[in-house]
Amino acid sequence: MIKLGTSVLTNNGQGLDRAHMVELVRQCVQLQKAGNRIVLVSSGAVAAGRELLGRSAGNETLAQKQMLAAIGQSQLVHTWQTLFALYNVPVGQLLLTRADLDDRERYLNARDTLMALLKEGAVPIINENDAVATAQIKVGDNDNLSARVAVLADADKLLLLTDQPGLFSADPRTNPDAELIPEIRHIDDSIKALAGGSGTAVGTGGMATKIEAASIARHAGVDVIISAGHGEDVISNCLTQQLGTRFVSLTAPKDTRKRWLLAGPISKAAIYVDDGAAKALRQQGASLLIVGIARFAGEFSRGDLVQVFDSQGCSVGKGVARYHSEELQQLLVNPELSKAQVLGYDNGAMLIHRDDFVSFRD
């Protein structure tokens, strides 16, 4: 899985850099001939739209950005199609929104299409469907989209190619002593604090979104590499010489439903548990019992996805709630009463069943 940022594909956001794109295509075809399956998550639709209309980047409204994406997306895919055709490699376009990943049936349909394209020897070109996506249904950036699609596709590696060589110990633009971090095995608050803003004004994702993406993908068994998108044989060198910063993958859940939970729905609320519950979830693969919940924040319904944190605020995992937030509140304030006495029915002692929970052992 290769995510190409706007800064990699354009001339500073003013139009597609076709000379560099053909070099990226050459590397992709080379890897494909060596037996690899390649998926591209391609930014650049809005920039391509500006190029066709002769506009410069400005303070566009949502409708204007969607218009630019609608015009530029066809140009972007046509460019990829033309360049891959030089090597007789077909491409296929998939435009996704968060709704496609949240809904399990639509998620599986997208997966079937993706696998069919790969089986045919085609290179899928994936982007968010910006022409119709609103704030409520947007993934928000192609970094997180690429991570979720990497989970969907059972990818081995995810390359996030950008305008920076990787993650540094400090901001290299302001600190001359900043050093590139070659490998990360644990994402904690200190790692997240190293992420600054976007490296340029032409993209929507900065280093923070790339760390978010790395956290999602590595929990699904995907190695993630953040590297600069320019340079000789950048894709090949990332895979063979580990350029940039590598986030080492963790053991992936084998259950397809749990993989969907990693890739799909956005958490509706935060559940905070005591130390005993956190240990049972992390180490024993247990269900989350209501008795282990200290408090929660946010509203959710039965069937919604909720994020679980320990007493220090560290993420434990996420899962599907079996009670509404209002019902949970009543159960927490009346622990001496049975669930049937409080609610009029009993849906079990757990808020999240272990089959509906994915643990973050980060």
From TrEMBL:
Its main location: cytoplasm. Substrate binds at residues 43, 130, 142. It comes from the Bacteria. SMART domains: PUA. ATP binds at residues 3, 162-163, 204-210. Pathway: Amino-acid biosynthesis; L-proline biosynthesis; L-glutamate 5-semialdehyde from L-glutamate: step 1/2. The keyword Iron does not apply. One of its GO terms (molecular function) is glutamate 5-kinase activity. It catalyses: L-glutamate + ATP = L-glutamyl 5-phosphate + ADP. Residues 269-352 form the PUA domain. Keywords: Amino-acid biosynthesis, ATP-binding, Cytoplasm, Kinase, Nucleotide-binding, Proline biosynthesis, Transferase. Its EC number is 2.7.2.11. It is found in: Cytoplasm. PANTHER family: GLUTAMATE 5-KINASE (PTHR43654), ISOPENTENYL PHOSPHATE KINASE (PTHR43654:SF1). Catalyzes the transfer of a phosphate group to glutamate to form L-glutamate 5-phosphate. Belongs to the glutamate 5-kinase family. HAMAP family: ProB. This is Glutamate 5-kinase. It comes from Pseudoalteromonas qingdaonensis. The gene is proB.
